[in-house]
Amino acid sequence: MPGVISLVLLSGVTLLAAVVQGTVGFGFSLLAVSFFLLILQSATAIQLLIVLNLVISLWIVRNMWRKVPRDLWLKLVAGAVIGFPAGLALFHYASVDQLKVVVATTLVVFVPLLAFRHRPVPDPSASPPIYRSSSSVGVGILAGAMTTSLGMPGPALIVYLTAIGADKDSLRAISLTFFTVTYAAALLLQALTFGVEGEVWMMAIVLVPVPAIGAQLGHWLSQRVTESTFRRSVLLLIGATGAYTLLTALIA
Length: 252
Description:
single chain, mainly alpha, 79% helix, 0% strand
């Protein structure tokens, strides 16, 4: 188990990240992964993130399933299943420093894509968007690989959902239900393939109340955040986290 100071730091990061996740539907790993790797200096940080992400998703996903476009969701999940093995291989062979570089590179690639993507304003009279099977499955493959390797499926999924014009409620519903399934599968695969050390479970038990509280607070805030504020928050969140992660990777 890490020391008291490390647990306090982990708790603070977990609370902030959980509030963001509950508010906008993603962001826990984007904010937490770099800090967790820095504090724990071990790949167990990824497994801990997966456990905590699963707790958050289960806590706030209960009433969202009915809002999910089934066809799109099933294609994303099918892709994730295909992508899981590649992520497991990366997790197994990469060192902590290499994982940090992968995290930084991932965010640097996805931040500009999201920042400069002008999402069209939804037209209530327009037909629902058409989801191409190939692109949906491809995004699912990338998100699945990033789940089992980095505990971070959000970037690929959020860029895609933003690009196809998903509104705030749809984005939250799709992302949180997708995360619930992929994190549960990733945790099972990690446990069966590499095992999960007792230290991870002990830290998870200590920290579990924190993301539950943060997620509930974020869910309450989500009802009071306008669409325009939501979009700005997403850009600010990914931009700030990407810049920080790149900085820590360069000075490591």
